[in-house]
Amino acid sequence: MAETALNGPKSLKHLFFIQTGMSSLDFIPMHNLKNLESLYLGSNHISSIKLPKDFPKEKLKVLDFQNNAIHYLSKEDLGSLQQTTNLSLNLKGNGITGIEPGAFKSTVFQRLDFGGTLDLLVIFKGLQNSTVQSLWLGTFEDVNDEDISSSVFEGLCEMSVESMYLQKHHFFNISSSTFHCFTSLQELDLTATHLKELPSGIVGLKSLKKLVLSANKFTSLCQINAANFPSLTHLYIKGNMKKLDLGTGCLENLENLHLLDLSHDDIEISDCCNMQLKNLSHLQSLNLSYNEPLGLKTEAFQECPQLERLDLAFTQLRVSTEQSPFQNLHLLKVLNLSHCLLDTSNQHVLDGLPVLQHLNLQGNHFPNGNIQKTNPLQTLESLETLILSFCDLSSIDQQAFIRLKIMNHVDLSHNRLTSSSIEALSHLKGIYLNLASNHIDIIPSSLLPILSQQRTISLRGNPLDCTCSNIYFLEWYKENMQKLEDTENTFCANPPLLRGVRLSDVTLSCGITAVGIFFLIVFLLLFTVALIFAVKYFLRWKYQHI
């Protein structure tokens, strides 16, 4: 490339040279790069990260060398990066085998990525006296990784790290002293590290705020020995490889926990969740989605009164009482109950949620496919988003949503609704309304004002009628294209000649034609003649019988 090849762009910030076959950074033109913030050089044949002497580095924030041929990092290499501040350096997939002692001395990085490196001892020794906010050391599934022993982490005592990621490594013989050099760590990711248990009395993790233990082999939640992490605010144990038993009070030492993710863990509980979540009074977000059936009784989440987000999607709920299991959650704003087989005939199942803003009921069925005037939604007066897609609904009573006055997003897609159900939304204005994939064919003119007052509407996937019987809607459709979503995929279903034609392309002439006028005149003349004869006959009959 010529030195002036990049002179055109006036404020070039991001530059990609991925899979270009380059083997040297001298290939990159230096002109017009003074505003450069990120440079991506992945999947090439580069063997050194040393930047050219005059390369502009003042604003550089991201330098990506993943999947190259860089095996050794020298002081000279790192010296070329001295003018950068809070740089994110990606060396993933290079197989680093050596780092010159002192190469990273006094350096500060936003993020360092050595993913796929087999010998972590080399990395920790080479990073001595450095400061790294985020250190990524995960490996890949197809790499034959050696077991990690406690001695590997000794070099961590000589550096400062806030977040560390060790995904897919094998830990060998973890002891209470394995993590003694992790004292400055705020976040630790041990996803898929083949852990079956964490020992009690672990030294070095007292300040840890976020811990990820997903895709491991715990059989009981108590096996993580939560007392090791008294400052923890975020805990993720999702996709556990074995059925996870929540036990009783296994997390009671985590008084500061704000977020708990236990999704995809095959959890099954007949009486959830107060004993299992004991003492988690500051918990704000709980994810129990994609688990086995959970039995819920009255105030099932009494131990977590501060909850703001609760996700129970694809987890069958067995509510054994007429009272709501959520009734003490006065701060709950987001509730995901999609595909929970919820008993919607229970009018009180959603009581006690005064500030709920987002409710997802996708995949739950209502009695006889109908939402009656009296239904569980009527108490949710703060609701803004309501998702009722895939609920097999065939009708909605006109008064079903009358108390839900501030909704701005309603998803009724993938049901069996006809146009008559639109009347249930007459009190709402400026909402996003998804009516896609229902059984709507003809929309009467009386319903068009309801549609006109909404912000965005989707009618895709309905068997829409494109005959003169629907002429008022078709005219409205063309006049309100700015309100309609996915018009490119909104087609006619009737008549057969127009099936598959976009509604926006349909033009109908529904006035009376000349032939129609002729027949109308003939009909009126015949009718007049018949009327005259009828009157004459009537008068004659009347006089004959005087």
Can you put this structure into words, describing what you see?
The protein is an alpha/beta fold and 546 residues long. Helices cover 10% and strands 18% of the residues. The chain has 5 helices and 31 strands. The chain has helices at 75-79, 120-126, 448-452, 471-479, 514-544; strands at 14-16, 38-40, 62-64, 72-73, 87-90, 98-99, 108-113, 131-136, 147-148, 160-165, 170-171, 187-189, 210-212, 234-236, 259-261, 269-272, 285-287, 294-296, 309-311, 317-319, 334-336, 358-360, 370-371, 385-387, 395-396, 409-411, 432-434, 456-458, 464-465, 484-485, 492-494. The protein has a 20-stranded parallel sheet, with no helix packed on it. The chain has a 3-stranded parallel sheet with strand order 16-18-20, with no helix packed on it.
Could you list some keywords that capture this structure?
546 residues, alpha/beta, 20-stranded parallel β-sheet, three-stranded parallel β-sheet, 5 helices, 31 strands, 10% helix
Q: What's the overall geometry?
A: flat
Q: Average pLDDT across residues?
A: 92
The share of residues in helices is 10-25%
Major sheet details: 20 strands, parallel
- Work out the strand percent: 15-25%
Q: How many strands in all? A: 31
